[in-house]
């Protein structure tokens, strides 16, 4: 029997509510610090749906584009209502209680594999309240930043000036998140995103700027991770309320039908997560490491362990 999962989202832990997985309508998030949309997709989903809704097993998202081979995705789109350093806005996990006694043999190999994918990852999984975070711009599978007109920066998530929320489907490119972070290097008053700012001009040449407009380039993630892996680059750039961020965190390492984790670059090494999951929810936070502001939270919970 497949494990039963419940997926929730909210502006913080206190506001979490069960959301519809694989829905064609993303869940809206609004707080004093962030406004936007989130969609969680799980291939062959057999978990719980919100009250009054029927669980949707699949999504067309997994059929094409970079999502082929993925088994799950957290996709967000939104803007930060106050300017925030690219270095300070981070995405990752935090637990309420220690997990060190539950960690399986081979954890060190798992951490090395994850660090290979995301060298900017910081973590202390042996702490009393374990955590693992990386800059949002580094850890996302794909991330696209679009500049909107300053006059519209206070508008809601339904603004027609926001880019389309990608849903996946028959088109391998148009319906997926493009990899393009070049807007972060553009002058703030330049909606067209053509001329770099003086700050950006000091850290990136034209070739680098072009590489950050990766779109479907197979090296896009690598080029982005290499540039933004330099902390001094992140510290000199910022998200503003006129930047709409569309990002996808997706991979094929977890089978949610069995809750088995396959570790990348380990020759097939993996774990049965049900043996080690102690009943705590797994929460993904987007937060500001300097101010402590939480922008949003997505929570995964094994429902039968919480019953």
TrEMBL record:
Domain Domain of unknown function at the cortex, chain residue ranges per copy: 5-302
> InterPro entries of this UniProt entry?
Duc1
By its UniProt entry, which Pfam families does this protein fall under?
Duc1 (PF08588)
Coiled coil ranges (UniProt) are none
The segment annotated Disordered runs over 153-173
What name is this protein filed under?
A: DUF1769-domain-containing protein
